[in-house]
Amino acid sequence: MLEVIQKEIKQIEQAHNVKILFAVESGSRAWGFPSQDSDYDVRFVYIQRPEWYLSIDDKRDVIEVPINNLLDINGWDIRKALKLFRKSNPPLLEWLISDIVYYESFGFKDELLELKQQVFSPRASVHHYLSMAKGNYRDYLQGEQVKIKKYFYVLRPLLACMWIEKYNANPPILFQELVNDLIVDSHLKREIEELLRRKIAGEELHLEKRIDTLNQFIEEKFAHLTEFAATCHNEMQDPTDQLDELYRKYLKKVWNE
Questions:
Q1: Which residues have C-beta within 8 Å of that of residue 203, sequence separation ≥ 6?
Q2: What is the bridge-based pairing of β-strands 71-77 and 40-47?
Q3: How far apart are CA 22 and CA 245, in angstroms?
């Protein structure tokens, strides 16, 4: 599959006359709970030629490839990525720490990794993850019969919030690492790990009776983390000048100008 994705990346470069700086996995495969039929969620950052940016009009700064049953590929222009990086955008921060790297060039990803903690905002991250967890809980885990695999899409962002509260740092991408560190109740951990085993084994996890232990844990954490989110503040310095320099550096480095 790596060859297929790398071939797609080269085709994107040629079709759009851009250079891709890095491409990684961003979905359930990166989080550590893929099903046997999970697709590949490929996300990338790219850079246009210098003249593309010298325009009086705004231009589309996203490249999207038509989704099929196997591949979901899209990416952001470097300027869009750096603006979002400045705001501590959680999805982009996850791309940077993904263990599944499909393509990397010019050293751009490594430079962002060095700056990651400098731009990390507990407030932005907690609000992002808590909103995601609450939305998925509301949409999928109400009632007696629930879409049971959706527990992962509530638990992972919920645990990410707990990590931020505990460590004041960007959470790791792997679900199992979050569970091992943050879930201390042995019964609760067994429930989660059994669900994880079933999902990875490819069992159909559609409508089943809800898991009351998990629902109770989730609702208790929602109450606590909502209070915690209200106390979070941004204390980081404005990195704009540094990111401007990085942007100009890679325009010259990539295009040799």
A1: none
A2: parallel
A3: 19
Per the document, the length of the chain is 257
The DSSP result for the chain, as a single string, is: -HHHHHHHHHHHHHHHT-EEEEEEE-SHHHHT---TT--EEEEEEEE--HHHH--SS----EEEPPP-SSEEEEEEEHHHHHHHHHTT-HHHHHHHH-S-EEEE-TTHHHHHHHHHHHH--HHHHHHHHHHHHHHHHHHHS-SSEEEGGGGHHHHHHHHHHHHHHHHSSPPPS-HHHHHHHH---HHHHHHHHHHHHHHHTT----EEE--HHHHHHHHHHHHHHHHHHHH----PPP-HHHHHHHHHHHHHHHHT-
Contact status, residue 207 vs residue 148, Cβ threshold 8 Å = yes
Residue 30, pLDDT score:
94
Distances 85 to 116, 143, 161 between C-alpha atoms, Å: 8, 38, 19
Angle at 25 between CA 76 and CA 134, to 5 degrees: 85
pLDDT tens track for 110-131: 999 999 989 999 999 999 999 9
